[in-house]
Amino acid sequence: MWESLGPLAAGPWIYAAVALSVLLDVFLPVLPSGVLVITAATAAAAGSGAATGRVPHEVPDILALILSAATASLLGDLAAYRLAWRGGKRLDRAIGRSRRLTVAQERLGEALSRGGGALVVLARFAPAGRSVVSFCAGAAHRRARDFVPWSALAGLSWAAYSVALGYFGARWLGPTWLATGVSVAALIGAGAAAGFLVRRRPVQGGA
To answer: What is the pTM (predicted TM-score) of this model?
Structure first.
């Protein structure tokens, strides 16, 4: 079955589907964008012969998937960032009513003010972490030059990791649904670990 899906994964529609899903899940975190990225990578690997150890000309399809997902991730972050920037006092009050969002805003502000954005990258893997970080950065009016480079790195890291899971899962386990399931489980595991680390990160003063 994956052999028949492989050529489809090389079509231009798959990049649009991946990009749209990743772009929108900053607003709708329930969208399974990571699952779609992994599935597309597994199908592309099946069509390219990666599962048998060969690396033919179709491999750029894998790179195109990474580029599509990473670009859409950055654009979605920027959209949420700008929306929150213009949200005004209503959004500030909404964040103030949520202890989780208030703490996240403080942690993000501290990280960016120190010139480090590891929290932005880490939160990209955590469930809904991308949404919290992007909206909090905009609501706090953090400078774009402090936020955007880290958002781009976060999107690229997440996209490369997700595509690699699908690609190497197909190569090691064969282009099967088992490979996809194991890859998705690895992505969920990384998200759980990232969420734990984000929650454990100490706050040393506000932003």
So the answer is: 0.78
- CA count, 13 A, side-chain hemisphere, 33: 33
The tens digit of pLDDT for each residue in 169-182 reads 888 877 677 878 89
pLDDT tens-digit readout, 147-173: 899 999 999 999 999 999 988 888 887
Say how many residues make up the chain.
207
Residues 8-12: contacts with CB under 8 Å, at least 24 apart: 8/43, 8/47, 9/40, 9/41, 9/43, 9/44, 9/46, 9/47, 9/61, 10/44, 10/47, 10/48, 10/58, 10/61
Are 158 and 124 in contact, with CB atoms under 8 Å apart? Answer: yes
Look-up: residue for tokens 């213009």? 86
CB 102 within 8 A of CB 112: no
Residues sharing a CB contact under 8 Å with residue 204, sequence separation 6 or more, in sequence order: 110
Sign of CA dihedral 149, 150, 154, 155: negative
Q: Tell me which residue of 165, 191, 155, 187 sits closest to 68, measured CA to CA.
A: 155
Contact partners, residue 49, CB within 8 Å, separation at least 6? 55, 56, 58
